[in-house]
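re: ur question from yesterday

yeah so i grabbed the chain u mentioned. its 273 aa long if i counted rite. heres the sequnce exactly as i have it in my notes:
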Amino acid sequence: MQVHKIIIPTPYAVGDVNAFLVKGEALTLFDAGPKTDEALAAIKYGVKQAGYAMEDVEQVVLTHHHPDHAGWVDAFPTAEILGHGYVDHWLRQTESFMEYRNEFYMRAMISQGVPQEYIERVLEVRSELEMIGTIPLTKFLVGTSIGTWAAIVPLTIYVGPYIGRLVENSLLEVNEGIIESAQAMGATPMQIIFRFILPEARSSLILNLTTATISLIGATAMAGAVGAGGIGDLAISYGYQRFDTSVVIMTVIVLLILVQIVQSVGDWLSRLR
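ran it thru and got these structure tokens back, copy pasting raw so excuse formatting
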């Protein structure tokens, strides 16, 4: 029996993972790394170094369903996929199974006392960022669908128009009489903007930007799903992928505290004159 170790890079905090190509009665690959271009290149290189082609692999054995181990099973269309029955649910990702998965984690958060409004917000942000890695736009713009750069594209698209709309609403709240008075005094357009409109809209701008910042905190936390780092990556790598619900709950608590701090600072600044 021949055993060849293949080191596969991952975008997750756990670092590299090991796959093993074993030649026995059948040529078998144990685990298939995450579904990234870098991982696929490492698998192809490892198989080639062992003296085989990708088409020669007859079996792929998945030790478990985590994305850093089961990503490239579709790179072996003629191989037999073997593993625990539970892995099959994750590979197929049927609608009923994904609904069960969402309900499971919702019940877990409810049992730990997480308020319903925060649970709904977490699910909302999660659904927005689930598109990362599948939309061609991200890879076209930054050349990758994982990591920090991949997260910047959807985050910018998500928060840019939102902030623009909030700023517009704040500026429209300024009384037109103030602008007319400034024009009557001979103020230039720049003076009207910086000495009249912005000071008058200051409190509203701060409160609206505080709201936008809180939304961005939630979105960036979920960016950990594509290996962008941060507290979201901590929850996924050490909580979700290791079935440690306590880490996920602690992450939610830290986010709630951070949101409360941002909201309190924003309220305080808006009251300053």
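noticed a couple things. The radius of gyration is 25 Å. also The CA atoms of residues 127 and 222 lie 9 Å apart.
anyway ttyl
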